[in-house]
Amino acid sequence: MVSPAIALAFLPFIVTLLIRYRHYLVLLYRAVLVPWLRDRLTGTSREQRAFQYVLAHAIPGDPHHILQTFDQWCYHCEHLSCVGPNKGRIVERVLLEQAPLRVLELGTYCGYGTVLLAQGLPPGARLYTIEGDPQHAAVAEKVIRLAGFSEQTVELIVGPSEEVIPRLREKHGLVNANLVFMDHWKRSYLRDLRLLESHQLLAEGATILADNVLFPGAPHFLQYAKTCGKYHCKVHRASLEYFRTIPDGIAELHYTGTH
Questions:
Q1: What are phi and psi of 154, to 5 degrees?
Q2: 62 is catalytic
Q3: What is the mean pLDDT of the chain?
Q4: pTM metric for this prediction
Q5: How far apart are CA 152 and CA 155, in angstroms?
Q6: Strands 231-240 and 243-255, how do they pair?
Q7: Is 192 tagged catalytic?
């Protein structure tokens, strides 16, 4: 049994840890504990609850207002792991500068990033978005159509990215992508980037944007991008979506195709 004297000796250390990592404890509470409890109390997922909020408060056919409504939900109700408004401005800038005609999104989730990308597409462009979770895809499909985007503009593909990517050209008609947005499992970033390379799905000069490369982090992906000789890479430092006190970043890669 630990003596009171030893316990008191550790008390300042424990208090220091709680103060230093308080923002991460709040994130754990809001992003994990609260949704877990509400899932069980309501019998619905937080993604479904978020969609019901959007359906009740957003203007149909107005992508910008739908994104704002999602932001309100995430700030005031429950946390969703979307790119969010701050890092979203980086995505919007790239879309405006490059006007890509063929865009690939890995990780549709609830459709926030998809709507963000789709609203910035130039005329005649097409967005292919891949989601591995059928339940998330069902919510995203409703969000995408609520925003006013047809299947001719946005094609939602359900399945594991490692299985879908090799079939993109033959089954879905994607010759190559001018812009790729990664926001799925961080441990899959490097694997899927190399799949895109091996199947020649990156257009010359293509841009790859990868979210959350600093938190939770994608160190192997960043190391490869910086050292393989195929990319010019920079990281835009920002904060975690809906948590301004937690540092994060979004990586911007430009594909050169050289070795």
A1: -125, 120
A2: no
A3: 92
A4: 0.91
A5: 7
A6: antiparallel
A7: no
